Automatic annotation (TrEMBL):
Pfam families: M20_dimer, Peptidase_M20. InterPro entries: Bact_exopeptidase_dim_dom (IPR036264), Cyt/Met_Dipeptidase (IPR051458), Peptidase_M20 (IPR002933), Peptidase_M20_dimer (IPR011650). This is Peptidase M20 dimerisation domain-containing protein. Keywords: Hydrolase, Metal-binding, Protease. Residues 199-357 form the Peptidase M20 dimerisation domain.
Length: 462
């Protein structure tokens, strides 16, 4: 497909500018102040799919934000690829740490992206990666090389748990029927070494509230005589890991699949420099579960992390007070086979049990999802590997990621098909962080690689 290369070269400025326009709309799904922007982004995605050449494009209403569905059916006897992506983004805060405003995209160079990268919230996660698929479709239709049917399903609630998408998928099995699901919402090792994500972690996300006395108290008059909810919460959280950094919740590891020595040896072959990793984060040492190396700790092992903790006086100066309540948001990343409902229950029971008599504990589950692993001998994986090999010059390495896309396990359950995670982002692209960016090279290579996936998938399906 020499043609795709020249098509991309010829149209790259337009491809970049169209993405920049999409990135200007602040589609923050977590914050209702942006709800009109989220809806406007859905409409912009819809227009881009029509323009690319879909025969049918619909705004599908849901209990939450709309799902944009598009399709180009060329022959019902040919295979069908279902592309999934999300047009919503994470909140941009902390604003003051952005070197340029999050919704005013600019191109800047970095050490890792000497050809430039687009800086904006959503550049990599997931507007940039989703839009590669729209442009790849445009190319295949313009050049008359679309080798099979394609369906698009682009949602606006991924960053807040995909509740409406689950609702939609359960009600539209026939409409969404496909032979393979293709997603670009993950990363790869580096621009010299592509990789294909073969696993995602599951997630259980809870909020805890610890209540002590019925009102805030003078910390001199009452200090030492009543349980301080903040002290207690800190102690309870600290007790959730032992000295080897194992999680202490009874039953937490019961269903965890241990990898064989061979599988771990295979994982260790992926290029990784601990020195570079530490330097990039400016830390003197890594930290984690005893018995596992960094690449295992952040992918094949479950974790428990506090994402936020608050309570008491945090304003200027000092106020002497024992707060009535303390709070924390806690996430547990899970590995395949751990059930997130079960883990949420185990957490709730344990956290309530370890509270001393002087406080009461309330645990509120937020959202969650199951982990995912996909085999590397499927037609889809092989086609993806052939596509990367052609555009990057070296075969892709299978890698299990630490991130979560909870809807992927639901796709398998409801639609009975496998997902191929063809990501083009890099860990250094700062997704969910200030100064998120996406390499121009990654964006254009993605557009080049996707049509090759279609070509090889159809060839291998024959
Ligand atoms: N695209 C990410 C997930 C991701 C990124 C997976 C990089 C692998 C590599 C997705 O948008 C995301 O942020 N997911 C959330 C979970 C969701 C339920 C909020 C996550 O992983 O925290
Ligand atoms: Mn994403
Ligand atoms: Mn995300």
């Amino acid at each position: 497909m020499e043609n795709i290369k020249s098509y991309v070269q010829q149209h790259k400025d337009r491809f970049i500018n169209e993405l920049i326009e999409l990135l200007k709309i602040p589609s923050v799904s977590a914050d209702t102040a942006y709800s009109q922007d989220v809806i406007d982004t859905a409409e912009a995605v819809k227009a881009s799919l029509s323009q690319a050449g879909c025969d049918l494009v619909e705004t599908c209403d849901t209990p939450g934000y709309p799902i944009i569905y598009g399709e180009k059916i060329i022959d019902p006897n040919l295979p069908t690829v279902l592309v999934y992506g999300h047009y919503d983004v994470q909140p941009p805060d902390p604003m003051e740490l952005w070197t340029s405003p999050p919704f005013e995209p600019v191109i800047k160079t970095t050490d890792i992206h000497p050809d430039g990268a687009i800086f904006a919230r959503g550049a990599c996660d997931d507007k940039g990666q989703m839009y590669m698929h729209v442009k790849a479709l445009e190319y295949m239709i313009q050049s008359n090389t679309l080798p099979c049917n394609v369906k698009f399903m682009i949602e606006g609630e991924e960053e807040v748990g995909s509740a409406s998408l689950a609702w939609f998928v359960e009600r539209n099995q026939e409409k969404l029927k496909n032979d393979v699901i293709l997603i670009s919402d993950t990363g790869m090792i580096s621009n010299q070494q592509p990789s294909i994500t073969t696993g995602l972690r599951g997630l259980s996300y809870v909020e805890v509230e610890v209540t002590g006395p019925n009102r805030d108290l003078h910390s001199g008059l009452y200090g030492g005589a009543v349980a301080n909810p903040i002290n207690i919460l800190a102690k309870m959280i600290a007790s959730l890991h032992d000295e080897d950094n194992h999680i202490t919740i009874p039953g937490f590891y019961d269903k965890v699949q241990e990898l064989s020595a061979e599988e771990r040896a295979e994982m260790a072959k992926a290029p990784f420099s601990l020195e570079k990793y530490k330097n990039a984060l400016n830390i003197a040492d890594v930290y984690g579960e005893k018995g596992y190396v960094t690449n295992e700790r952040n992918s094949i092992r479950p974790t428990l992390d506090v994402n936020g903790i608050w309570g008491g006086y945090t304003g200027e100066g000092a106020k002497t007070v024992i707060a009535s309540k303390a709070y924390a948001k806690i996430s547990m990343r899970l590995v395949p086979n751990q059930d997130w409902h079960e883990i949420t229950e185990l957490f709730t029971k344990h956290f309530t049990n370890i509270a001393p008599a002087g406080v009461t504990v309330k645990v509120t589950p937020h959202h969650g999802g199951q982990g995912y692993v996909t085999p590397i001998d499927s037609i889809g994986y092989k086609a993806a590997n052939m596509a990367y090999t052609e555009t990057f010059g070296v075969p892709a390495i299978p890698v299990r990621s630490g991130g979560s896309i909870p809807i992927v396990s639901l796709f398998e359950k409801e639609l009975k098909s496998k997902t191929i995670l063809m990501g083009f982002g890099l860990d250094s692209d700062a997704i969910h962080s200030p100064n998120e960016h996406f390499g121009i090279l990654n964006y254009l290579k993605g557009i080049e690689t996707i049509p090759l996936f279609y070509k090889y998938f159809v060839e291998l399906s024959k």
